[in-house]
Amino acid sequence: MEDYVVFQIDDYHTAWSPDELYVKCAQDLAQILRAERAVLSDQEVADAMACRISFSTDDVTMIDWASALIFDRDADDVRAVLEFANMELLEMRFLDHQLDDALDQSYEVIGKTRF
Question: What integer pLDDT is reported at residue 19 of this predicted model?
Fold first, then answer.
């Protein structure tokens, strides 16, 4: 089990486009995505803000490893995709754990076999 936080802002009034919001507020948005109070380095801000997507001119979604920030008046589809992606990630981790266990068991069996 793992926490994933989605911040959705669905009622906003700004003269800034998503691109301008990214440029003017990158530090603050990166701090929100990383749940950090400290000012982040330029490299950390760039990393936190690297994955962003817009469908129209008045929406943007910024996606990070443990959180997402959505500026969208109708974000049901975006939230559904994020939920699906996180479920798939958890499933892959579970399968990876099972594979690791199977490999460990096979190494034990092979190690006990004498030729």
Answer: 79
